[in-house]
Write a structure and sequence with these properties.
Cytochrome Bc1 Complex, Chain A, domain 1, globular, alpha+beta, single chain, about 20% strand, 5-stranded mixed beta sheet, 7-stranded mixed beta sheet
């Protein structure tokens, strides 16, 4: 049976996946990220992620950190285009400690001015790190190219100038508008019964009232493919090419996930890796990605190579895309593609933290989340015809945008 989302006494949603592991995970997942920031404050969502741990009404920053670390636990967070996550990993008997701490952070963070100013310098160094890492920076810049002048194209970190402008009032306004009842899910994977966890969450989360959401996200608008070449101080060319794809609600996203795995997913036997790296030796890394969002999706291919081999690599990438459009997988090819993908999904669930984040994100959109048995059933039902259909819908090269970081000329 799928895992159902239950409601606490104040309406807050809770998803729990019971396990027998001695390690458990609990988190607050929020449907609010970079695209929800006001135009004048790029990087605000990420800044909140950093500073929410800097003190509450009853704890200073050290006591917040030490509350989990003193018992061997871990406290962490992340920000993306549409989501912000706060979560803890801990020994299962410490569930009350983790739930109480995250509730304290979520409802009673004080964002002290002194800590805000200190954390700005930390984020400046994070920005420096990404600017010095073209193979990572190129993905943010590619999204800015594809989602031109739209909130989805904003850099998650913001700029030093935009971060410097952020004040405590901006944080309070952002959390008030976005950390609302229908935008929040509590998620848990661990060794505790659902009934006991509901009581625990009702104790620390259920008595606090959350406001109803009034936020409206800006629709994406019309997409126009773009191409850009930028000179960078690098020894190799970095390339990202891709286009819009299916959103999180589209049933076609599932066959496309399988197709993307065949093309350039995790395995060393992907078509891109075999064509570009194994047969030709032209790149160390060549991969494809599919990221479904609430109202759109993004498909992309990345590779890094010698500047003189850039066009050759691009030709090989296009070749593999065209093959998937024209040539249906044979029955044995499809069988092993499904088997590989299902095996990867099962291995990914060995990390219960990954399972928490993946299931929790789905719970933001659905009232129930599939389990492994349901995933197997859905993936096993995918046909070669469906894979050809989604390939022809997404792999239209005339609709591809491309960003190239070429080495500076000597």
């Amino acid at each position: 049976m799928p895992h159902r989302v239950v409601r606490l006494q104040n309406g807050l949603r809770l998803l729990h996946i019971p396990t027998a592991s001695p390690i458990s995970h609990f988190g607050i997942l929020i449907d609010a990220g970079t695209r929800d920031e006001p135009a004048q404050h790029p990087g605000l969502a990420h800044f909140v992620e950093h500073t929410i741990f800097k003190g509450t009404e009853k704890r200073n920053a050290y006591r917040v950190i030490n509350r989990m670390e003193s018992v061997g636990g871990d406290l962490n967070a992340s920000t993306s285009k549409e989501e912000t996550d706060f979560y803890a990993s801990f020994l299962s008997p410490d569930y009350p400690r983790a739930v109480e701490l995250l509730a304290d952070i979520f409802f009673h963070a004080t964002f002290p001015k002194k800590e805000l100013e200190k954390e700005k310098t930390v984020i400046f160094e994070e920005i420096n790190y990404y600017n010095d890492s073209p193979s990572e920076l190129i993905f943010d810049d590619f999204e800015s190219l594809v989602f031109f002048q739209h909130d989805m194209g904003k850099n998650i970190l913001g700029t030093k100038e935009s971060v410097q402008r952020i004040h405590r009032e901006d944080i309070m306004d952002f959390t008030c508008q976005n950390y609302t009842l229908e935008n929040v899910v509590l998620a848990s994977v661990g060794n505790i019964s659902t009934e006991k966890l509901v009581r625990l969450c009702d104790k620390y989360f259920g008595s606090s009232k959350l406001t109803e959401g009034t936020r409206r996200r800006k629709p994406l608008g019309e997409y126009h493919p773009k191409n850009n070449i930028t000179r960078k101080s690098t020894s190799q060319t970095n390339v990202v090419t891709g286009t819009l794809a299916y959103d999180i609600h589209d049933p076609k996203r599932i066959p496309f996930m399988l197709l993307n795995n065949i093309l350039g997913g995790q395995g060393q036997n992907t078509r891109l890796n075999m064509s570009v790296r194994e047969k030709k030796g032209l790149a160390y890394t060549v991969e494809s990605y599919f990221n479904p969002f609430s109202d759109c999706g993004l498909f992309s291919v990345y590779f890094g190579c010698d500047a003189h081999e850039r066009d050759h690599c691009m030709h090989l990438v296009h070749n593999e895309l065209e093959k998937l459009k024209r040539q249906k997988l044979g029955s044995m090819q499809l069988y092993y593609a499904k088997k590989q993908y299902l095996g990867q999904l099962a291995l990914a669930q060995e990390s219960k933290l990954n399972e928490l984040l993946a299931a929790g994100h789905l719970a933001l959109f659905y009232d129930e989340v599939s389990n492994m048995d349901e995933d197997i059933r859905i993936i096993e039902s995918i046909t070669a015809e469906q894979l050809c259909e989604v390939a022809n819908e997404i792999f239209d090269l005339s609709q591809f945008s491309t960003l190239i970081f070429d080495p500076e000329e000597e």
